[in-house]
Amino acid sequence: DKENSQPFVKIAALMKDAGLRAPEVLDWHEAHGFMLLNDLGSATMMSAINTEDPQANHGLYMQAVDTLIQWQLASRPGVLPPYDQALLNRELSLFPDWYLAQHKGVQLQGQDKETVDKAFALIVQRNLAAPSVYVHRDFMPRNLMVVESEARLTPGIIDFQDAVMGPITYDVVSLFRDAFISWDEEQEIDWAVRYWEAARQAGLHQDVADRGRNAVNLAATRNDAVADIPFERSASFSIREDGGAHVCGRRPELAEDLLRHFVAEFSALGTCHGQAFLQISQRKSGDISATEHA
């Protein structure tokens, strides 16, 4: 009846060893589920962001990038659970199960199901092929604390208990394409390119020829569209009694934004999945499927 605190304690220690600011476990009574932590304060990066002037936030985001790279450089294989095919498929399944079936009233079948299955298989393939690092899984301004240090405002990290070993692109896209705040694509790409170059210089990847394409993918797709965003987090819909839905605390346009970038990603790959996927996603209950047309 108590949440397993072992992952939190383990990852807090990893972050401390990496020189990062995270809650320090001062005492822990595992059997009773009590834990004593030091306090990082109440000021989040989100509260410090100036939504009217993106450039005013450049310093905050670059400090977050430095913190992210420091976390990624600490990565060691076999320490954290893998972001493997099973986890990717489980998170992908939330899209047809919740967005399509529960929110839209659309059941996938026939050619539609084949289209979605092929699209998701490509997402899984790309993510499994990416360089692997420690992945926070929720590395966004709401989970970064603005902690004063002698040198600067150093981001502190919270809500890291679900961290895994997975694609290098995940956390940086969580940072720049947040579910709670929106920036112009040009701004996102600028920050993503800066991250990608800093990560290359730090030795996290050697993909010099493709870094421009990867940076665009990062800023445009929330880490290869849907795969690297737990759907319940990034497009977390709740169904109202009247049959409508809303995105819980997220940007109202998030679902449409997500789908638009999904199409852009597959277009960049030279596949036909994007437009077909968008047509499926825009269906409503009672619409005729591709299979019924045939």
List the helices and strands and how they pair.
Blueprint: H1 6-17, E1 25-29, E2 34-37, H2 45-48, H3 58-73, H4 85-92, H5 94-104, H6 110-129, E3 132-135, E4 144-148, E5 153-157, E6 164-167, H7 169-176, H8 185-201, H9 211-221, H10 231-234, E7 237-239, E8 245-247, H11 254-268, H12 273-281, H13 290-293
Helix pairs in contact: 3-7, 3-8, 6-12, 7-9, 8-9, 11-12
Task: Outline the structure in words.
With 294 residues, the chain is mostly helical. It has 13 helices and eight strands. The strands form four sheets. It has a two-stranded antiparallel ribbon with strand order 1-2. α3 (58-73) packs parallel to α8 (185-201). The longest helix is centred in the middle third of the chain and has 20 residues, at 110-129. The relative contact order is 0.15.
- Shape, please? globular
Number of separate strands: 8
Helix content: 40-55%
Mean pLDDT: 76
Taking the sheet with the most strands, its summary is: 2 strands, antiparallel
Gyration radius (Cα, Å) is 20 Å
Helix count, DSSP H or I runs of 4 or more residues? 13
| SS content category | mainly alpha
First-last Cα distance: 51 Å
Which range does the strand content fall in?
A: 5-15%
Please give a handful of descriptors for the protein shown:
294 residues, mainly alpha, two-stranded antiparallel ribbon, 13 helices, globular
